[in-house]
Amino acid sequence: MYRMFNCLVEQHAVWVVPLAGLVCWVSLHTALRLNRQSLDSEGRARWAWLLAASFCAGAGIWCTHFIGMLGYDPGLSVDYRIDGTLVSLIIAVSAVLAAFVVVRVGSRLLGAIGAGLVLALGVAAMHVVGMLSIQVPGVLVWDKTLLCGAVGSGCILSAAAFAAHRHPRTMHAPILVATVLTASVAFLHFTAMAAVEIVPDLTFAEAAPSLPRLALSAGITAIMLSILGFGVLALFADRMRRANAALRASEAALRLSEERLALAVDADGLWDITLATGEMWLSDRWHMMLGYAPGELEGHTGTWERLVHPEDRARTLRLLNDHLEGRSAVYECEHRLLRKDGTWCWVMARGKVVTRTPSGHPARIVGLQFDTTVRREAERRIAHMALHDALTGLPNRVLFRERLNDQIARAPAQGHGFAVLACDLDRFKAVNDTYGHPAGDALLKVIADRLRSVVRATDTIARLGGDEFAIILCQIDGPQSAELVAQRLIEAVERPVDLGSFVAGVGISIGIATAPDERDADDLFKKADIALYRAKAEGRNTFRYYLPGMDAGVASRSGLERDLRAALRTGAFSLHYQPVFGAEDAVLRGFEALLRWQHPGLGPISPAEFIPIAEENGQIVPLGEWALREACREASRWPDDLRVSVNVSAVQLRQPGLEQAVLGALAAASLAATRLELEITESVLIRDSEASMACLHRLRALGVRIALDDFGTGYSSLSYLRRFPFDRIKIDRSFIRDIADPDTAAIVRAIVGIGTRLGAAVTAEGVETADQLRQVRDQNCTEVQGFLFGRPVPAEEAARIIEGSAGRRAA
User: Fold this and answer.
1) Could you tell me if 637 and 644 are in contact, meaning their C-beta atoms sit under 8 angstroms apart?
2) Is the separation of the CB atoms in 431 and 439 below 8 Å?
3) How far is the C-alpha of 643 from the C-alpha of 640, rounded, in Å?
4) Mean pLDDT computed over 398-411
5) 3-state secondary structure (DSSP) of residue 335
6) For the domain that residue 482 is a member of, what is the CATH number?
7) 268 band by pLDDT with thresholds 50, 70 and 90
8) 526 and 427 share a domain?
């Protein structure tokens, strides 16, 4: 460090260091700008700019070195050899050119390191050659360690500068890079100067032509002037480059704006009206919106007026005149126009007066229109979806209520009464549970179409949800008109529905409330709903009018649900037992346990009414388990040759606890499993049939008997007879009722034959007359059950039946 300090202070003039640094910085900054211009150029121009940059940097570094030499005073006379001085200039320019090339072709890190190494070695070589070219009466002695340190430090600083130059982050990067490179060159030069010592030699004699100091100064000045010239050129080129870039950006923005304008013009139909003559220019897009070829329509306002929908024409012209007369700032109107194919399209038209006469009257109006048909259709669909059922397309509950309120408001002025019909499908749940929701949805669509076919276009039919419908019959003459429509609805719905894989049969129950003076929609529909439940309670597939006092006789569904839960807690349910006899010997074989509910306010509630509710809300599971326990407990008191049959619903069979519930009931009553028979319908097996079959197989393996109830009314009975060995088949009562019909008798005979071949007993349900008994005996049925032999009775009466049949059973 002392040698470096001594070299700078003692052997160099004071003005040398700042002058050399300034020259070096200006040269390198100019070179970097020229190099940036090279990167932005193509072909030969790129190499021309690169060579200019290399010359500026190399010559600037060379000038820095010899300015330092001019201020260097070793205490001896110094001259400069011409050949060595020129060679050092060439080395400096070549080193810079090589560094610029390396930093371009390499990666950012390796390129920067390589360029720094090349530049440092080149500057060191230039320095050594320059020093060797001086003519001085002495011998140069080098400190190689200090010289190598100068080269190493120059490499590090140069690499850092080239790394910044490779990816400049700010607009001041050229200044930063030039500063770091200047520091690198200056540090290398003055460290290398400190590394050399001149030892006087009295035998020295000049051997080659040399340059005096004045000539060298002139050369340095000339080179610096050329570098400054290149600097001015670089500044001019940089401004041109930026101006060209700005121009290209402006051109691109203009092209984009033109493209957007073209798209807008193509998307919208433009029009231009000269008001004095009525001439109307219509763009090609305007024609194409309506399906016409460009220029096909006559350019006159009369043509346009004829295309406007008659219902929209007066409003459209009024809005146009409002704008022309200054009552609105802009003409804007959405209306319909007639297409060439005869259909109507919705358009939104906007326009404005652009030219006026000297007196201020409008002379010319221009505008555009765009097609809003798709938007209007989407809005219409959304509005329709909000007020209509998605499945059937019928009005929903919201729209039904609006129309009911409107009808109530209009009824006094119309002078006619109207009626509200509350409708509910019968046996729909069985189809939905058996075949799933897709089949249920398909059935609902068919039923909705049939209901539409019965009512008038002025009436309203709505789907309220599930299998519930409601109808408003407008302007009826009296109750007879509503009765006629209700009967036609029943006849339309009860026709079988072919759904492809099966034929479904449903009915409809209807409650009617007439409203000559009723003013409240909720009260009116509540009355129709009460009448509906009366219709269901009295046999279904029928209709009933609302009558005063009917409220007390029919419990609403919500009330039944509430009372059903309470009945489970208070033990309001009971079992009645219907006897089953042998068909030939009339010997008692057992009983079927049937649920009964004695409502404290409504009296007996039909199982057909409360069991579907219990299945829907899940109460059937605890209710079924209670019935199972109670039936087993009662059967344990009977003789061992009598069995008890208990019905199992689909909901129970799908529950994982059924098997445990059966075992628990048998164990609690100490009843043999062979004396318990579970009756299921085939609808229980159709959904989740594999799981249901597995459960039944396990129960049968324990000894419990399994009976197939209501055989023949379902959908795939034979397939389940083939898959599960039922102990008993029970023929549905509908076949026994019509057994006198030869076709029905043939069906019964076939069922008995199937049961016999499968080893299953066959029970005929619903035997009510002696003739029916004779018929089932002729068909070889195994057992009979029906009112002819006994109605369902409480347990006490069942015990008396058992006692009375003891003799015949013993025989």
Assistant:
1) no
2) yes
3) 8
4) 88
5) strand
6) 3.30.70.270
7) confident
8) yes
Structure tokens at 734: 């509908």
Supply φ then ψ for residue 212, to 5 degrees: -75, 170
Alpha-carbon distance of 761 to 580, in angstroms, equals: 12
Q: Is 59 left (phi over 0), alpha (psi -120 to 50) or beta?
A: alpha
The residue written with tokens 């520091």 in the block is: 183
Length of the chain: 811
pLDDT of res. 170: 42
Q: Which residues pair with 730 in a beta bridge?
A: 763
Q: What residues form DSSP beta bridges with 331?
A: 351
Q: Which of 148-162, 291-305, 370-384, 412-426 has the highest mean pLDDT?
A: 291-305
Partners of 728 in the β-ladder? 707, 761
> Looking at the structure, do residues 219 and 161 belong to the same domain, yes or no?
yes
Q: What is the mean pLDDT of the chain?
A: 80
- Number of domains comprising the chain: 4
- Segment among 80-89, 105-114, 605-614, 785-794 with least mean pLDDT: 105-114
Please indicate whether residue 64 or residue 751 has the higher confidence score (pLDDT). 751
SS3 of residue 341 by DSSP: coil
Return d(Cα 548, Cα 84) in angstroms, integer.
131
Q: Provide the token pair at 296.
A: 């096909």
Contact at 8 Å (CB) between 210 and 80? yes
Residues 311-338 have a mean pLDDT of 92
Same domain, 498 and 456: yes
Final residue of a structural domain among 530, 554, 578: 554
Residue 596's nearest CA partner among 622, 572, 629 is 572
Confidence grade of residue 171 (pLDDT, cut at 50, 70, 90): very low
Same domain, 645 and 615: yes
Burial 347-367 (b: 16+ CB within 10 A, else e): bbbebebeeeeeeeebbebeb
Task: Flag whether 383 is in a domain.
Answer: no
For residue 231, give the amino acid letter.
Answer: G
Q: Does residue 631 sit in the same domain as residue 692?
A: yes
What whole-number distance in Å separates Cα of residue 521 and Cα of residue 279? 58
143: Cβ contacts below 8 Å, ≥ 6 apart: 3, 194, 195, 196, 197
Rounded to two decimals, the pTM is 0.43
pLDDT in tens, 39-55: 777 777 778 777 877 77
Q: Are 35 and 114 within one domain?
A: yes
Are residues 411 and 311 located together in one domain of the fold? no
More confident residue, 600 or 226: 600
Q: Are strands 728-731 and 705-711 parallel, antiparallel or unpaired?
A: parallel
Q: How far apart are CA 378 and CA 387, in angstroms?
A: 14
Give the alpha-carbon dihedral of 236, 238, 244, 245, to 10 degrees: -160
CB 297 within 8 A of CB 287: yes
Q: How buried is residue 744: exposed, middle or buried, by Cβ count under 10 Å (0-12/13-18/19+)?
A: middle
CATH label of the domain that carries residue 795: 3.20.20.450
Residues 349 and 456 in one domain: no
Domain assignment of residue 272, yes or no: yes
pLDDT band at 526 (very low <50, low <70, confident <90, very high): confident
The beta strands (E) that lie in 254-313 are given as 269-274, 279-282
Single out the residue of 280, 284, 251 nearest to residue 267, CA to CA: 284
| pLDDT band (50, 70, 90) for residue 172 | very low
Q: Cα–Cα distance between 560 and 616 in angstroms, integer?
A: 12
Give me the domain span that covers residue 485: 388-554
Alpha helix (H) ranges present in 460-553?
479-493, 521-537
Q: What are phi and psi for residue 713, nearest 5 degrees?
A: -90, -15
Q: Yes or no: say if 627 and 597 are a contact pair by the CB < 8 Å rule.
A: no
pLDDT tens-digit profile of 301-311? 898 999 999 99
Q: Is the pLDDT of residue 669 over 90?
A: yes
Q: Collect all residues with Cβ–Cβ distance below 8 Å to 621 and sequence separation of at least 6.
A: 651, 652, 655, 657
Domain membership of residue 252 (yes or no) is no
Task: Read off the pLDDT band of 745 (50, 70, 90).
Answer: confident
